[in-house]
Amino acid sequence: MSKTHSRTIHIGNQGEHIVAAMLSANCIVREVGQGKDTGIDLYCEILNPETLELSIHFFCQVKTAKGSFNLNGVDEKYFEYWGKQPAPVFVFVVEYSEENRIRENHKIWVYDIPYVLTKKDAKNFGKEEPLREVDEKFELCNESNNKDKMSLKDFLYGHIPWSHGLWQMRRFGLVFPNPEIKETRLQCFVGGFSSIYEEKIREAISHAQKILSWDQRRLEKPHANKPLKPTP
Fold it and tell me: Is the residue at 225 inside a domain?
């Protein structure tokens, strides 16, 4: 009996390879092995285009869809899972119209999951929904219009550092700079969203102050810095 391959998996594999190939010029791309469908397909690290220094990490979930794709159809458990990841997640949708011409004729759309989750948080907390110039969904193409089109370079070196900051604020109440991508330092400043996570930010500041206070008292104790004598 001959063995056949799943058409759905075959189409999905093509989409993953298209996205991985597109990102590979500017990122280290690691594929998550088949049979491990956890909601993450690719694990990426952005490269400095001149020095090839590694910097920000991000995850990709790749979907391959004939026609339009609706993020509302994704099970809520995936959003919960994505929100707890150690790096921000982006959903890449490879949209095609003809199955036998996916590689030659397709569009790539990106859903910014940190922003999607922040809007969900605002609704759950009864806060005003945050707005920004870039939509939660945009097409990766050869132009950028600050709304629903974005070049790959702008996405990797401008948008991801900003979304990374939003993801950090949402998870930890703090935003850490990304000095490896020097030209985008200021874009790590996530303004206009702090009111949603005000309590978490205060908790993070309070925790940091407790650590500083504890260390200060420890250093002020007599002989605190005196080296221990070896036991005879």
Answer: no
* Of residues 39, 47, 147, the one with CA closest to residue 84: 39
Name the 3-class secondary structure at 167.
helix
Cα 115 from Cα 134, distance rounded (Å)? 10
Domain contains 230: no
Spatial separation of the C-alpha atoms in residues 164 and 82, rounded to whole Å: 13
Does residue 186 register a pLDDT over 50? no
Separation between Cα atoms, residue 168 and residue 178, nearest integer Å: 12
Q: Which pLDDT does position 227 carry in this prediction? A: 56
Q: Are strands 42-47 and 27-31 parallel, antiparallel or unpaired?
A: antiparallel
Number of domains the chain contains: 1
Report if residue 227 sits inside a domain. no
Here the tokens at position 67 are 């026609």
Record the tokens describing residue 9, joined without a space.
């998996």
**What is the model's pLDDT at position 185?**
47
Radius of gyration of the chain from its Cα atoms, rounded to whole angstroms: 22
Which candidate, 4, 37, 44, places its Cα nearest to that of 156? 44
- Tokens, residue 194: 């702090």
Q: 232 lies in a domain?
A: no
The parent domain of residue 213 ranges over: 7-220
CA distance 124 to 118: 10
- Residue 232 and residue 172: Cα distance in Å, rounded? 46
Task: For residues 74-101, give the mean pLDDT.
Answer: 91
Whole-Å CA distances, 130 to 168, 193, 211: 16, 7, 32
Residue pair 42/23 in contact (Cβ under 8 Å)? The answer is yes
